[in-house]
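Q: Could you write out the predicted structure for this multi-component system? I'm mainly interested in how the pieces pack against one another.
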Amino acid sequence: MTRRRSGPPSPSPTTASLKSIADEVGVSISTVSRAFTRPELIGEQTRNQILSVATRVGYQPNRSARGLATGRTAVLSLLVPDIANPFFPPLVRAAENRAYSQGYAVLLAHTDEHAERERRLMREMLSRVDGLVLCSPRSAAGPIKEIARQRPVVLVNRAIPGMTSVACSVDVGVSALMDHLHELGHRGLVYLSGPASSWSDKDKRSCVRRHAKRLGMTVDVLGPFQPSFDGGLTAAGAVAERRSTAVLAYDDVMALGTIRGLTELGLDVPGSVSVAGCDDVMFAGMTMPALTTIAMPNELAGRTAVDLLLDQLASPGRTPQEVSLSSSFVARGSSGPVRRTA
Amino acid sequence: MTRRRSGPPSPSPTTASLKSIADEVGVSISTVSRAFTRPELIGEQTRNQILSVATRVGYQPNRSARGLATGRTAVLSLLVPDIANPFFPPLVRAAENRAYSQGYAVLLAHTDEHAERERRLMREMLSRVDGLVLCSPRSAAGPIKEIARQRPVVLVNRAIPGMTSVACSVDVGVSALMDHLHELGHRGLVYLSGPASSWSDKDKRSCVRRHAKRLGMTVDVLGPFQPSFDGGLTAAGAVAERRSTAVLAYDDVMALGTIRGLTELGLDVPGSVSVAGCDDVMFAGMTMPALTTIAMPNELAGRTAVDLLLDQLASPGRTPQEVSLSSSFVARGSSGPVRRTA
DNA sequence: ATCAGCTGTGCAAGCGCTTGCTCAAAATCC
DNA sequence: GGATTTTGAGCAAGCGCTTGCACAGCTGAT
């Protein structure tokens, strides 16, 4: 270790503050502060001096102090039901990326699909963040609006009148899927429903019905089943019983369970029955057979949600908007032509 | 809407503060503050009065102000390379859960495997959080230690002398896997390596070699390959060429790619070649064949990391410890007995 | 020379909360 | 009953930063 030329014997472990920089440069605290926040106001020479000292000592503003003074924290809250649900990571990633690029950090919390915990989290976040993104919130409209009165809120995959939201409808995807199945000779479809109360399940049911009618196909709605592999396993029994030739599951995970269940019952996928999922989760393309599915634009959803939130932050008066994103269809190996029954 | 009995015409939209409560109850601000932070110091009657008013008006302390006054933010930072990598969600979830239960919120950010971004994030987090958990950090030891000088840091899946870390070694899992393969008649193993510089890849290579020696099996290390499905696809070619009977891939995703690649080359898994992965990612059990793999205790890792961090927060002097967690072996359908060559 | 208008900087008042210290009243002791 | 301790509460000084306002020194128009 080389001897220090002069100055204090050791770099003080206390973090640099406006004051320490001000003292070193020989200006007032306000000037240093403004050198960062309103650089135009400061003379070029002074500013450069300040900035160079700041980078040398690795100055990082104390966020709490800034937050207290400005009333803004530069933090956004992202509430998801369960980050381990493969639906969310891409969304979270996109949201965090966008937020970061705009100078915001992201406080992540998961609600465990538990309305009570969700409400507590929302409340606790209030004093920590500038705005919140709520993904598939379970709470009633009341508590959510209560929060929205205090901080900008954007809903993802849930709409509440008068609030900004971004939702991904399966409509386009289901339409294409059912065209695809129809062309392959299928004349009926079983929909394996998930959480009955969720916006997303309702959307799927209604889209399936609408497009079935359009194509003259029959629809059976089974369930609700757990949106899990085991839920799919269970559902497989019901599918087999019904001698259905085509199945759409609430999500990809359930679809994989269904495929496994059907296989164990001696039914070939896609030979005997075609199975499709929803979400186009990361693994959907990696299984065998690869999963035919409806891709949800969740990266876009995450990014959009943050954009909408930042919009609201920038112009508080803004009227709420309900953005609707559309899905797409991805044909893979788990769907095929209907087989002539023996 | 019923008429309000008395009091102000409408609940002021400004958030409640210590002062507003103090005024209403008729005590000083300090008393209200202490009613929350040091309740023993306050008379029971006063305290109850304060608490009841507080809950009625939905008081939430201003975190910035508290942070400024105490120097603690009650926020932890969790840096992961990529939340969309299925390895991380369970870890993040467990970490967030543990932190939440101890009164801490979690700031999540992803580094995109990018050392520069990682360093910037670490620095920026410094002023926002009380401590950081760094998952598989890419940065050199220097910058990391620099951060650790300012705030407690816990490393996950990376060890740096003198720092607290928690790592999951594949040792136990590899041992069991290789016993399993040996019993099934395999006498050689191909290891498909991932990012050569990562601690985790080194660990895998050395464990594989050690246990191969123990069992008298041969080892071929191929790669490095991208730790992705495509990486596995590529690797499959090399595996087929070598006429290997057993393969261990760097991670589950690569393993799935390998299986697909082998299948496309006309090799049956596990008939012609057994394939195992690492991590026991959510989907590992859902594919067909279900993936034989080495399960990493990443929930435990996430929880432990947070615990270690909170320990350091509670008792700053504490000597750094390197916790090592062990993996386990999960036999599923992608591994089987070696087939007599024609 | 005079004065208005800039520019660049400093002053000082907070932002809402914590906390060491002070102090009055009540409880306890001898 | 007086001295001492305990209890409950308030005062006030910050924590580090932002920002409205004041003001000194220039510039350039008059």
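A: Regarding packing and overall arrangement: Chain B touches chain A through 54 residues (CB under 8 Å).
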